[in-house]
Amino acid sequence: MANKRVLVTGGAGFIGSHLCEYLLNQGEEVLCLDNFFTGSKENVRHLMGHPRFELIRHDVVEPILLEVDQIYNLACPASPVHYQYNPIKTTKTSVLGAINMLGLAKRVKATILQASTSEVYGDPLVHPQGEDYWGHVNPRGIRSCYDEGKRCAETLFFDYHRQHGLDIKVVRIFNTYGPRMHPQDGRVVSNFIMQSLTGQDITVYGDGRQTRSFCYIDDLVTGLDRMMNHSGDFTGPVNLGNLGEFTILELAEKVIAMTGSKSGIVFKPLPQDDPMQRRPDITLAKERLNWAPAVPLDEGLRKTIAYFRQLPGIC
Ligand code: NAD
Ligand code: UDP
């Protein structure tokens, strides 16, 4: 069979760059589209010059005409620091980006996958979070631009599916980490590793008892591929995440121990609406996609720390 032509929006970001690499290794033709807001050419430099790789500078809030078989819609800043920098643009990216990519998928009859998020559950009152839970989201807080933007994108995906018969796939991604996270990204794993390696105090927000479940990037990419290429009519939404649940304080202590750092821990105010607990129920992913993560936190952190250690300016 001929290679598929696959569009990855947000392809020069953390997850997108790993996905582009994976797709090239699978023999696909990859169009990586990005406006370089939080991603960079550096993330895909090793793919440039590959005969099946193409990099397009474009903003998903504007329409684009391309001929593709599959679309992974990943374009959107994911770190609270970055998505709160220009919150109106964040909502536009999710909503107008979804409309433009769905329009493209409709025109060329492509299968389209939306990178949704565990944030659609907000600060959840149900634990662990299954796909049937509708969530507990503040519609007018500082996280709303991201959470509600992603929720509206899901709405658009399911309406395009019902109204126009589009082949849609919706995955809800839980906290994912690994090499090529931006060192100044502001997310907890990159912050703690950078602080440990540079001898700064580790900044724990709140009392550190809030929990997250951390999924290693390679596991996530496999899950994205399984969902996109699932032959049945399974639209999702489906959770993709690791079952291991850790408090933020446990993560801080783990990173300090694994880096052999002398950093101390300082406590900073908890940001508004910061979810107190998060762990996916992945029964559906196991049943429908035969997918479950394989990389435990310690192993993933080891690889991620090794990546951060070799960055310029880190010793
Ligand atoms: P990232 O910030 O590294 O990547 C996002 C990419 O999208 C960047 O390359 C950025 O430049 C690009 N982008 C942003 N706005 C754009 C626009 N208007 N037009 C074109 N490109 C644009 O973040 P990531 O962690 O790689 O996240 C990728 C996707 O996965 C996002 O949609 C995010 O919401 C979703 N997600 C990530 C996580 C996680 O833990 N990493 C969790 C849930 C969902
Ligand atoms: N966090 C922290 N210190 C940091 C960065 C984040 O304690 O330097 C906390 C944050 O308050 C949240 C958790 O770690 O409770 C995960 O934050 P992140 O921004 O990585 O992801 P999200 O909140 O979107 O899940």
Q: How are the strands of the biggest sheet laid out side by side?
A: 3-2-1-4-5-6-11
Residue ranges: pLDDT <50 for 5 or more in a row? none
Number of domains: 1
Mean pLDDT: 97
- The helix/strand class is alpha/beta
* Principal-axis shape: globular
Q: Level of helix content?
A: 25-40%
Query: What is the tally of beta strands?
Result: 13
Question: How far apart are the termini?
Answer: 47 Å
Q: Give the full name of the CATH homologous superfamily.
A: NAD(P)-binding Rossmann-like Domain
What is the helix/strand order?
Answer: EHEHEEHHEHEEHEEEHEEHEHH
Question: What Rg is obtained from the alpha carbons, in whole angstroms?
Answer: 19 Å
The CATH class name reads Alpha Beta
Q: Which compounds are bound in this model?
A: nicotinamide-adenine-dinucleotide, uridine-5'-diphosphate
Which architecture name does CATH use?
A: 3-Layer(aba) Sandwich
Oligomer: single chain
